[in-house]
Specification:
Elements (H helix, E strand, L loop, with lengths): L14 H4 L2 H24 L1 H10 L30
Length: about 80
């Protein structure tokens, strides 16, 4: 075990020394992979679209909503003569 510093303040650590190295490397790796996949998808055009769309197909366009309001038209019955009782 190395001897501890007892004759003064502890040595100053940089910002990079305070980061957890293993987690930081994982985050950087995942960001680089994500950027690489996006770059490949944009540059390859249709050749990669089929492969990536098989994994996660794009959402389908929603069908137009049916009309919620319909105007009623009232017509007299044939032979009623239009007279009210």
């Amino acid at each position: 075990m190395p001897p501890r510093h007892t004759d003064g303040p502890p040595p100053e650590r940089s910002f990079w020394d305070l980061l957890p190295k293993r987690n930081f490397r994982r985050v950087v790796f995942l960001i680089l992979v994500l950027v690489a996949v996006v770059a490949l998808k944009r540059s390859s055009g249709r050749s990669l679209n089929g492969l990536l769309d098989a994994i996660a197909p794009p959402p389908k366009a929603a069908a137009p909503a049916p009309a919620t309001f319909q105007r009623l038209q009232v017509a007299p019955l044939p032979g009623a003569g239009g007279a009210h009782p």
